[in-house]
Write a structure and sequence with these properties.
Elements (H helix, E strand, L loop, with lengths): L5 E8 L3 E2 L4 E2 L12 E2 L2 E2 L5 E5 L58 E6 L3 E5 L4 H11 L15 E14 L4 E20 L7 H37 L4 E2 L3 H27 L12
Parallel strand pairs: 7-10, 8-10
Antiparallel strand pairs: 1-9, 2-3, 4-5, 6-9, 9-10, 10-11
Amino acid sequence: MDIITTIEYITGSSFRHIRTSTSKLFCASLVLLGVLVYLNGAALFAQQFSEHASATPVTLKPTASSATMTPQPVAQQPDTTPQAATAISTSVCTPATYALPGALDLIGTSGLTETVEPTQTYSIYGVNGAELRQQIQACAPRERSGDAVAEFTAQTGYYLSWQYDYAMRGDGLCTVANPRVGLHVAMILPDWQPSTDADRSLVTKWRTFIENLTVHENGHVNLDREYARQMFADLQSFPASSCDTIQQSVNAIMQNNIVRLNIANDQYDAATNHGATQGAVIPQ
């Protein structure tokens, strides 16, 4: 039986910020072993946050029948040119504040920890589809801080982090022990506040739209959960390795899972046309 001679505590996570139409990678550099002492060992960290700015693009009407992003013929589409703001006949919305997910505290936990926050909403007003679309443009979360109007209706973000101990055996190899993975998810959707003179058929259409939009966003959440489970399984099954390279090897596997997750989310948006094929099309 091998004798454990050393135990080190490793904490990690990976940071990446993506949007539906563009993606950016921000990965914090790994801190060298021994630079940051934590508990009885060394702590390494990077941070991984991702947003899926998904669902119906506000400024165009996507096809609801195709599983690709091919637009409808021009003759069948409404004018997709963003229009200058015009007077709204009802209340004016307030730009959304989206509380982003952060790293979960995994100290004292074991296994996989998932936290999916209650759905956040931002209120919009209007008596017809044009006003709803205009208010979403004005008050949905922005893709970039300088954007004049919002491009997407809803956003779902995740933050994945991981921690583990590793032990040095008598043969000089190290093994992963007590792996922990944390998944934190936050979603924001529009919340229409219809006035008494709103078209009743529009109310029904909006309710259906939100139901379908929620289905689409939950698809992203399910992917996030799937890859969090995979990351935990990879930590559990990580083979005995050189103590000099174990943290780099583990982080390489974790980062590969992150890349695959982000690709899966992009492919999901492409296959559903950002929810349009699931019926998440803003009512007209």
